[in-house]
């Protein structure tokens, strides 16, 4: 809108603000036609020429007469370019309405004519109608008024009125027009100069304020009535170009009631047993908002004792701001705000300490301001809130584990776990690990624990003498707690004892022939299979042990070479006699024979070893299905040719070949014998598998 003015009558201020909303679609408001009087009014009849863009309106077209949005008459065009007949008994466009003086507009589909007339019952009018498909067509689409208007604390009245104007034509309107009406019986005119695109809607908001002349508690019906009209100034080609100064293209009327001022209640939040490390959320509420009303702007002060409570900024609705200063929050609602029976605002506080103190939450003389969208102020009352601290001494539970024995000068790992057993946070905790003389070994400062939260750490320490490790946990302004773990400094022992050897031989050291060694660590593997070796060992301190598997330089002869074949390993051991190592060959044993080996363990210059023999042999019974052939029952002799397979690396002097013929199920069973013979064995479950198969 380029320009707008307002008039003042009889001491009543009419404040007008305009908002342009292009493309805003608004339904037209229905018109209350009232109760039809008796006898009914006579119709008004129309006939004449009808043109569209200068050409005759085609036969079969329908011309409709409307008053506002109500259809009050229709006629079919039976002769091109004409509607109705001048003859006494000829058909004419008959308009019937319940109220005299309404403005009649004429429509051809969605187009309305440049002509419009006031309804005069009983007349017959020769009215040429001209329609333009490309002309602007301005209409008042919607008048929006509040159903109820509320008095504020000063018994003043304020209300917002929305008026929507739509260009129904196919071309842009760029000129002046007037919005004219009555507010509380006082005439006003709003001259508007605007540009409205074809099909677009423009919305104007008018704010009306009257007071303090309105009596408190008075309810009036019909005092707040509007009649809004649209009139376009002359413009070539516009649909208003033939409209007289007192001929209106649209009328809308609505009614509002005046209701006494409302008292709203501000309910301050209540916080109980609040932690000093974690905030608590509660809600400031504005309650008692009647149906159909809303609070669009407010300012609420909240005072508290800053030595007891502290405000924690958090997520707020977009229409809320909180200004925080020492001991005071100023909460403001910015238009538009939530409407309904109450407004709820989340606020977060935490305690300054765990002293168990409390304070009140209220405005304490600060001014509370509550307004609706029209600037009307509500009366207010308050419900005081409160805040109480939690009485709690912060502490955490530490624990630690380390090997009970260690070697002097050798790093050991200490495993630390600290947990918060409470449902409140514990902050600024200092963790310290010392020996029995108080010498610091490890520390961690400013650790913050959420409720029920735990942290784990691994510390590497080196001890020179037996001591007791002491882990202390001290929260800021809290209680210190501790955990202890004695560690003995010992001379390191690493050995494969006779018991280790006996246990290993009992479980894994099966002898399938070959040279028996004193240690009994004989191991047999079939040719082209993957061997594994190992042993139990005993040590008195936890840590990694180096392992070497030595085949006396025969490694490549037995297995060939691969970057993935490893003969040096590292195993973690614990204090005790049930430690074990396992070596698995990545490559198959590819050479038949007996191969002595040694397993050597080493740590910190202490070593031990065990000897054994790895025997690589062929399958004792080498059975293969070489060929199969079917014969009919009438054949008494037949040939079954096959090729013999012989390994080049085998000792042929010790081999024999037996050829067997078998038919039926026994013949098919031979195909599985090679797999069963080569099936892994040694442990009880492996030994019984071929038997079950």
Protein model, in words:
- By secondary structure, the chain is mostly beta strands.
- Strand 2 and strand 3 form a beta hairpin.
State which percent range the strand residues make up: over 45%
Number of strands: 49
Mean pLDDT: 78
The general outline is elongated
**Gyration radius, rounded:** 51 Å
- Helical stretch tally: 4
Structural class category: mainly beta
- What summary fits the major beta sheet? 6 strands, mixed
Q: In whole angstroms, how far apart are the ends?
A: 97 Å
Query: Uncertain spans, ≥5 residues at pLDDT below 50?
Result: 1-37, 216-250, 511-518
Residue share in helix: under 10%
List the helices and strands and how they pair.
Layout: E1 14-19, E2 44-52, E3 55-56, E4 62-67, E5 70-76, E6 82-83, E7 93-95, E8 103-108, E9 111-118, E10 124-126, E11 129-131, E12 138-144, E13 148-150, E14 157-167, E15 173-183, E16 186-196, E17 201-210, E18 221-225, E19 228-232, E20 251-252, E21 255-259, E22 263-267, E23 270-274, E24 280-287, E25 297-303, E26 309-312, E27 320-325, E28 328-333, E29 342-351, E30 358-361, E31 369-371, E32 379-383, E33 385-389, E34 397-401, E35 405-407, E36 411-419, E37 426-434, E38 440-449, E39 454-462, E40 467-475, E41 481-490, E42 494-495, H1 498-507, E43 521-526, E44 532-539, E45 543-550, H2 555-559, E46 568-573, E47 576-584, E48 593-603, E49 606-617, H3 664-677, H4 684-692
Parallel strand pairs: 2-10, 2-11, 13-21, 22-32, 23-33, 35-41, 43-49
Antiparallel strand pairs: 1-17, 2-3, 2-6, 2-7, 4-5, 4-8, 8-9, 12-14, 14-17, 15-16, 15-19, 18-21, 19-20, 22-24, 24-29, 25-28, 25-31, 26-29, 27-28, 30-33, 34-36, 36-39, 37-38, 37-40, 40-41, 42-44, 44-47, 45-46, 45-48, 48-49
């Amino acid at each position: 809108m380029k320009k707008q003015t307002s008039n003042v009558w009889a001491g009543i201020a009419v404040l007008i603000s305009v908002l342009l909303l292009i493309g805003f679609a608004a339904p037209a408001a229905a018109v209350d036609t009232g109760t039809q009087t008796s006898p009914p009014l006579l119709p008004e009849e129309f006939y004449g020429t009808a043109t569209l863009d200068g050409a005759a309106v085609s036969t079969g077209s329908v011309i409709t007469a409307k008053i506002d949005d109500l259809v009050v008459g229709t006629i079919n065009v039976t002769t091109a370019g004409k509607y109705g007949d001048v003859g006494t008994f000829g058909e004419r466009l008959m308009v019937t309405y319940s109220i005299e003086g309404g403005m009649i507009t004429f429509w051809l589909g969605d187009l309305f004519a440049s002509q419009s007339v006031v309804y005069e019952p009983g007349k017959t009018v020769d009215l040429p109608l001209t329609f333009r498909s490309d002309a602007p067509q301005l209409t008042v689409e919607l008048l929006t008024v509040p159903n109820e208007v509320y008095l504020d604390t000063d018994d003043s009245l304020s209300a917002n009125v929305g008026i929507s104007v739509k260009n129904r034509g196919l071309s842009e309107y760029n000129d002046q027009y007037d919005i004219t009406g009555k507010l509380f019986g006082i005439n006003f005119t709003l001259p508007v100069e605007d540009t409205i695109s074809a099909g677009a809607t423009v919305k104007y908001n008018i704010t009306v304020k009257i007071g303090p002349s309105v009596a408190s508690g008075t309810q009036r019906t019909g005092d707040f009535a509007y009649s809004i009209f649209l009139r376009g100034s002359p413009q070539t080609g516009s649909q208003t170009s033939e409209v007289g100064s007192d001929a209106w293209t649209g009328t809308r009327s609505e009614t509002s009631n005046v209701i006494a001022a409302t008292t709203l209640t501000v309910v301050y939040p209540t916080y109980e047993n609040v932690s000093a490390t974690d905030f608590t959320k509660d809600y400031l509420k504005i309650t008692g908002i009647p149906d159909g009303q809303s609070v669009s702007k407010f300012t609420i002060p909240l005072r508290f004792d800053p030595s007891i409570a502290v405000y924690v900024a958090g997520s707020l609705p977009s229409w809320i701001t909180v200004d925080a200063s020492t001991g005071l929050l100023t909460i403001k609602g910015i238009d538009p705000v939530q409407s309904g029976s109450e407004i709820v605002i989340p606020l977060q506080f935490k305690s300054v300490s765990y002293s168990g103190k409390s304070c009140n939450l209220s405005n304490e003389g600060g001014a509370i301001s509550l307004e609706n969208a029209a600037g009307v102020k509500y009366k207010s009352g308050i419900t005081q809130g409160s805040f109480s601290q939690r009485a709690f001494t912060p502490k955490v539970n530490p624990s630690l584990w380390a090997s009970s024995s260690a070697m002097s000068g050798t790093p050991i790992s200490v495993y630390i776990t600290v947990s918060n057993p409470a449902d409140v946070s514990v902050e600024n905790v200092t963790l310290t690990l010392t020996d029995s003389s108080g010498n610091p070994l490890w520390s961690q400062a400013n650790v913050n624990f959420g409720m029920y939260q735990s942290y784990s750490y691994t510390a590497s320490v080196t001890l020179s003498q037996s001591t007791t490790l002491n882990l202390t946990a001290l929260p800021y302004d809290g209680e210190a707690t501790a955990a202890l773990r004695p560690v003995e400094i010992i001379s390191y022992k690493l050995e494969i004892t006779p018991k280790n050897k006996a246990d290993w031989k009992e479980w894994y050291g099966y002898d399938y022939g070959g040279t028996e060694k004193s240690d009994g660590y004989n191991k047999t593997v079939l040719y082209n299979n993957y061997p594994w070796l190992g042993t139990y060992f005993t040590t008195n301190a936890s840590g990694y042990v180096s392992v070497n598997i030595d085949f006396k330089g025969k490694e490549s002869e037995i297995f060939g070479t691969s970057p993935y074949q490893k003969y040096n390993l590292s195993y973690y051991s614990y204090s005790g006699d049930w430690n074990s190592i396992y070596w698995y060959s990545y490559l198959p044993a590819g050479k038949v024979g007996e191969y002595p080996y040694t397993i050597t363990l080493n740590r910190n210059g202490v070593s031990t070893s065990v000897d054994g023999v790895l025997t690589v042999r062929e399958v004792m019974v080498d059975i293969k299905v070489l060929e199969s052939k079917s014969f009919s029952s009438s054949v008494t002799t037949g040939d079954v040719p096959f090729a013999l397979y012989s390994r080049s690396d085998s000792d042929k002097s010790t081999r024999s070949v037996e050829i067997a013929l078998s038919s039926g199920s026994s013949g098919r069973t031979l195909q599985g014998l090679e797999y069963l013979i080569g099936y892994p064995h040694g442990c009880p479950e492996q030994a019984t598998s071929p038997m079950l198969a």
